[in-house]
Amino acid sequence: MKKLINRPEDVVTEELRGIEAAHPDLVRVNYGPNYIVRADAPLQGKVALVSGGGSGHEPMHGGFVGMGMLDAACPGEVFTSPTPDQMLEATKAVDGGAGVLHIVKNYTGDVMNFDMAAELARGEGIDVESVVIDDDVAVQDSLYTAGRRGVGTTVLAEKICGAAAEERRPLAEVAELCRKVNANGRSMGMALTSCTVPAAGAPTFELGDDEMEIGIGIHGEPGRERRKLAPAAEISRELTEPIVSDVPFAEGDEVLAFVNSMGGTPLIELYVVYNELNRLLSERGIRITRNLIGPYITSLEMAGCSITLLKLDDELTRLWDAPVKTPGLRWGA
Amino acid sequence: MKKLINRPEDVVTEELRGIEAAHPDLVRVNYGPNYIVRADAPLQGKVALVSGGGSGHEPMHGGFVGMGMLDAACPGEVFTSPTPDQMLEATKAVDGGAGVLHIVKNYTGDVMNFDMAAELARGEGIDVESVVIDDDVAVQDSLYTAGRRGVGTTVLAEKICGAAAEERRPLAEVAELCRKVNANGRSMGMALTSCTVPAAGAPTFELGDDEMEIGIGIHGEPGRERRKLAPAAEISRELTEPIVSDVPFAEGDEVLAFVNSMGGTPLIELYVVYNELNRLLSERGIRITRNLIGPYITSLEMAGCSITLLKLDDELTRLWDAPVKTPGLRWGA
Amino acid sequence: MHDGVTVSYDDVLRWIQTFAATMAEQRQYLTRLDSAIGDADHGINMDRGMQAALAKVDGLADGDIGALLKTVGMALVSTVGGAGGPLYGTLFLQMGMATTNKSELGPDDWRAALDAGLQGVQMRGKAEPGDKTMVDALTPARDALSAAVADGASFDEALRRSAAAAEDGMQATIPLVARKGRASYLGERSAGHQDPGATSSYLLLRTAADTWGGAAAPTDKEES
Amino acid sequence: MHDGVTVSYDDVLRWIQTFAATMAEQRQYLTRLDSAIGDADHGINMDRGMQAALAKVDGLADGDIGALLKTVGMALVSTVGGAGGPLYGTLFLQMGMATTNKSELGPDDWRAALDAGLQGVQMRGKAEPGDKTMVDALTPARDALSAAVADGASFDEALRRSAAAAEDGMQATIPLVARKGRASYLGERSAGHQDPGATSSYLLLRTAADTWGGAAAPTDKEES
Ligand SMILES: Nc1ncnc2c1ncn2[C@@H]1O[C@H](COP(=O)(O)OP(=O)(O)O)[C@@H](O)[C@H]1O
Ligand SMILES: Nc1ncnc2c1ncn2[C@@H]1O[C@H](COP(=O)(O)OP(=O)(O)O)[C@@H](O)[C@H]1O
Ligand SMILES: [Mg+2]
Ligand SMILES: [Mg+2]
Ligand SMILES: [Mg+2]
Ligand SMILES: [Mg+2]
Asked: Which residues contact C21 (CB under 8 A, 6 or more apart)?
């Protein structure tokens, strides 16, 4: 295992110490239970946004704490969702009396832990709403299964709902907006390599030199299918088609296109994929009016990418454009 | 070779098409010769900044074109410095009558090609100054060699001089400032893995599972020394000591600390390194007052990191904080 | 238990300690199982959680088995995370609720505790038998235990039968296509792999049979 | 040349074409050499540049060797980049300057051209012999050529001697510690590897000897 770390069991704590040292103007870090909050939290009268999940997806979520995005993030161990006490304490730390929105990625662990935390927080008189993001078209949705995973749309939901909360919109509206983003966002990802969970010490799966995994999530797990390696044009098509043929995309639509690195894929390749994506969408009469390109929701050092498309309207576009000032995403401030 | 590309020989062109499609509000792209210019170039009366180098270091330099940073960037083939005609055409495209500063990383190829371009541009009546960045303490400086490489400080110089040019300071001053940044910035890097030049198809060097390279540049080349893999604390110390024991750093100094990913190293590890760096500098009474953490000057998908320290004063701090709006670096706008 | 044999607070404590030791030993094995169809952390998670539980139960000394089990449950909830945390946390919390104020457990108490724990797991996780989860080990274990108790089998025998049933249930997860948890994302590719949670649940019941079988059997023999 | 044998415009064109073919063939080899002490692109760069040069010289048909060589130089400057671009570009540009308006070259013309090219390379790159660069192949080649011309050797013989000297010079780069170019960053670690640029320069002179040796030799025999 080749990583810039000390002891595997200390990675998350030392990462948090790094974040704390680097961004005191933006965030504060609490240890035991671990959570990151806005430096100016709680903001009276503002709906607070709390998210969280396993570590290993950086900058998500801790890097998205700050003005215009999250009020708090709860980092779990690597690829392991955080615990209810982290979420409860974070919720209490950021509640400014207007209620708290939990943005939860649809994984059994995340959902159950956030459920427990929400029950406990409500027990302490805090108004909590939860929205579960489930945008991964690689996974068949069904009543009888755990349903779709939450992936790329989470980043977009946190940005957009963060902007709405900044406008002092009430909890029910911000939660509704989050559901709208989820309903209009779809993603799919692929991997060229596996990644190594520090405490596990070996790659989660093995891939041949001419193989790739299509339909992966963000936890270093194998995908829906193993395939022969293909050129970027073909990979882009295989990711894009299941997305655009899913519910919300049609000719004439304007979309936000998010081309994400899984961690080990450099920017030069993301732009090659973006070029393909742009071509594929033009052919279908879908217009990219906003984009995000880079490593924003990652799986440690995994090589690969995901594509997320979010159907935009004026409201979503305006909220996307609103200022944001976090360690991981920043503009207009 | 596992990459999200089509034909190796098309990588740079397709990347440029991706950049062009993604950021029409910020930049324009010219093909044959290849260069990227600010969407609003030329700016009358503003000193224009031109940089360039081999591709494979993204976001540098193309991602740094925009308000408050570069006016143009010339991308060469992967790890191959661009040609004089690219630089000449870019220089002509951005000259707004106040002269052009060439920011050149100290590599034989870059220096010779920029020299030829500057000669040609002066021949066409454009006022050109060149500043060569040579900040890599892994390389012994000497009159009889090619001297130190230009690495991380380049990013900081482009940001700071871009801000100065935005203030409409004259060419001589902006060039002098660039030399000052170079005089006060020092870097050192290391690699956990090699990387693969697309057209070469195989990793530039092979490293054992328990080996690392210390003192690498940014072209996937081997470093000064091969060592046994070590914990982040030790690696951070090995990178930091040659930097701080070099000319400009002393107790009481305030510095900008730049922890850079070589491309394949994820953010979680950079924060672990930042935590170590912060500790090491505190011990020496050096205070980090600004920082930059992420993949900004990369070597394709290489895993590893570099540390750059820039000694700050009020002027440099103010110019660093000034608004910047580029695809790769953005704040305050 | 018909013959009056019970497990004491100390037996339950030994079970917890042995299970913690087993999770430490099987950490790599469980994580490898989770690599195949999950995210390579189940052994790491369970080990971390049980180490935390050990530290918590060390302080207790009041002989209340319910309190002991609830303490384990709380420790798991607040240190494991993932799916394992709430599920194993709930399992122990519910077992603790079912044994509040008890200082010893007979077979029927243990059956009731396991039943409550399993119900808690299903309430939290919404998994049915056949979904390829820990429920596939716990359900046959609970059923075999109930049957053994109804048959009038010895505690030792009942424990052995329930562990054997858990083992069968665990093995039966191999051909299944997962419908719950992370493995469900793999669809058909999840078939052919043993579920990590079912494996840790089997180990939980095997540890009970081994620890208490050894503890209860001599008493049993002495009294018979 | 004492015996009056010269190379024609077509011979020079064939040399350029053969060198381009050689760079295409040796692309991987040169890139591998550059992997060891550089950045793994020398073969790729030279191949790309010579392909571009081929496309450019195709259009020319005026019989001016100087114009031909300058065209090659310009093509290299504007397509190669890196260190190779300006250096090989300058080499050919200077050779072109030294042969302006010539439609055939005798041994002394060729010596003067190579000398001008080498001086251009050193002016651009500031490398001295022993720095582990292409200068280490070009310098002995130029010197051997001068000596052969002074000795009154045949053009063919002079070409063979200069290629042999280039080969020796190339091999002599192996033990050297680089002082110029990218390999200098490796310090002591650069020793033990053959310099890629010295290798491509040797190939340039070997190609001249092979192409013109073949061309000039028969003429030589006919006339003698
Ligand atoms: N909904 C569920 N109900 C019951 N058990 C479940 C459920 N989802 C997952 N599990 C169990 O949890 C195990 C995985 O636990 P663990 O690896 O610790 O959590 P995670 O999947 O969050 O990484 C699975 O092997 C399965 O037995
Ligand atoms: N200053 C110099 N003078 C002469 N030749 C040089 C100099 N620097 C480098 N070279 C030659 O250039 C070769 C490398 O060329 P190439 O790989 O194309 O460029 P780069 O080093 O920019 O990648 C070296 O092997 C060496 O022979
Ligand atoms: Mg997990
Ligand atoms: Mg090069
Ligand atoms: Mg798991
Ligand atoms: Mg090279």
From this structure: none
- Segment A116-141 shows an average pLDDT of 94
SS3 annotation, B128-159: EEEEEECCECCCCCCCCCCCCCCCCHHHHHHH
Q: What is the dihedral sign for C-alpha B130, B135, B141, B145?
A: negative
Cα–Cα distance for residue pair A191/A194, rounded to 1 Å:
7
- For A73-126, what is each residue's pLDDT tens digit? 999 999 999 999 999 999 999 999 999 999 999 999 999 999 999 999 999 999
Mean pLDDT over all residues of chain C? 92
Q: Which domains does chain A have, with CATH numbers?
A: 12-183 (3.40.50.10440), 185-321 (3.30.1180.20)
Q: Which residue has the tokens 């020989």?
A: B9
Structure tokens at A269: 């390749």
Residue C224 has pLDDT above 80, yes or no: no
What is the arithmetic mean of pLDDT over C72-86? Answer: 96
Q: Residue D187's domain spans which residues?
A: 7-213
Residue D214, pLDDT > 60, answer no
Give domain status of residue D222, yes or no.
no
Please give the Cα distance from A185 to B272 (Å, whole number). Answer: 33
Interface probe for A, chosen from C26, C41, C78 (most Cβ of A below 10 Å), is C41
Structure tokens at B148: 């130190």
Phi, psi (5° rounding) for residue C170?
Answer: -60, -45
CB atoms inside a 10 Å sphere around CB A40:
13
Per-residue pLDDT band for D218 (boundaries 50, 70, 90) equals very low
B214 — pLDDT class (breaks 50, 70, 90)? very high
HSE-CB for A278 with a 13 A CA cutoff: 22
d(CA C189, CA A224): 7
| Interface pTM, i.e. ipTM | 0.91
Residues whose CB falls within 8 Å of the CB of residue C170, separated by 6 or more in sequence, listed in order:
C136, C137, C194, C195, C198, C199, C201, C202
Task: Work out the minimum CA distance from D134 to partner chain B, whole angstroms.
Answer: 13
Q: How many CB atoms lie within 10 A of CB C55?
A: 12
Question: Is D2 domain-assigned?
Answer: no
Q: Beta strands B211-214 and B100-105: pairing type?
A: unpaired
Nearest CA in chain D to B78: D41
Residue with tokens 């909590």: A128
Neighbouring C-beta atoms of residue B279, cutoff 10 Å:
15
Whole-angstrom distance, CA of residue C129 vs CA of residue C131: 6
Question: Based on the structure, what is the number of domains in chain C?
Answer: 1
Angle at C138 between CA C136 and CA C141, to 5 degrees: 110
Q: Tell me the per-residue pLDDT of A175-215, one tens digit each, with 9 for 90 and over.
A: 999 999 999 999 999 999 999 999 889 998 899 999 999 99
Query: Cα separation of A146 and A106, whole Å?
Result: 8
| Whether C39 and A199 lie within 8 Å, measured CB to CB | no
- Report strand pairing: A48-55 vs A100-105: parallel
Examine chains C and B and say if they touch (3+ CB pairs below 8 A): no
pLDDT of residue B271 exceeding 90, the answer is yes
Residue of chain C minimizing CA distance to A148: C185
Structure tokens at D118: 């080498």
What is the arithmetic mean of pLDDT over B128-132? Answer: 98
CB D116 within 8 A of CB D95: yes
Yes or no: say if B68 and B163 are a contact pair by the CB < 8 Å rule. Answer: yes
Question: To test the ligand 2 pocket, which listed residue (D23, D31, D33, D34) has its Cβ within 8 A of the most ligand atoms?
Answer: D34
* Helices B108-123/B84-94 angle, 10° precision: 50
Give the separation between CA A70 and CA A166, rounded to whole angstroms: 10
Q: What is the mean pLDDT of residues D93-99?
A: 97
| Single pTM value for the model | 0.93
- Can you read off the two tokens belonging to residue D3? 């015996």
